[in-house]
Amino acid sequence: MILPQYLSLFCYTYVIICITKFRFRRILMKIPASLLSLAKNILLVDVRGSYKRRQHQKILNQLKTNNYGSHKISILLPIYNTEHGLEKCLDSILQQTYSDFEIICVNDASIDNTKQIIGSYSQKDTRISIVDKSQNQGFSFAHRDALAQAKGSYVLCIDSDDWIEPTMLEDLYLFAQQSSSYDMVYCDYYKNNLVTYVPTILEKNLPFERIKKRSFSFGNMLWNRLIKKDIFEKVIFHQERMGEDDYISTQLYYLSNKIAYLCKPLYHYNQFSNPDSISC
User: According to the model, what pLDDT value does residue 130 have?
Assistant: First the structure.
């Protein structure tokens, strides 16, 4: 759920009015009941989110004191005409506090400077590999081709015009170590710099309930979750042009045993940044 700054300010103004509502009774009477109800609900989400985020940060701090070793994370990075934001995306990955990862760049027949940019980065860092396609096949097949090259135990998908927080890999990896049965860990994100709390996905192994409640609702993105590679390898990829996230996510909901939620925004979703970056 997105909480714009002006709406957040309204919510907290509402609280102040309620605390002193005897003095501001006339003001309250002039505010539509539907708007007051909305303010209450948004404020409740914000308060609960802030509390859970503090609790989860405490868990992360404790997990950092344990020695879990490391498992390689394979970052799948499909790219199509995103030269404008690609360097920022790659820089955010290379600046991670967790260093045991590889980046598999799939150049899906871009016609801009994508090939030159990823070529330059791959020469500077051996963790970057490139799959250079002569024909554009779209988002789904780009992930399939990247996955075929992956050597890690976990997979993380990133859109090439987005970027991530410096601790994203470390935080998701540590949170996953709480239980060996966690096949997926997902987190909150920023949408155009505003915090978005992700809708709940059932953590228990009830795949059909997950599909029923989540598969056709907003929030089925792939890029805010760390997934075990052996789970992702069971996904069937089709050359879809619309709804690829939904199609893949539905399968992951069914295939995963337990799913963990980390209440912390770690991904920056740059919505509508470049229409030319949509695979055709």
Answer: 98
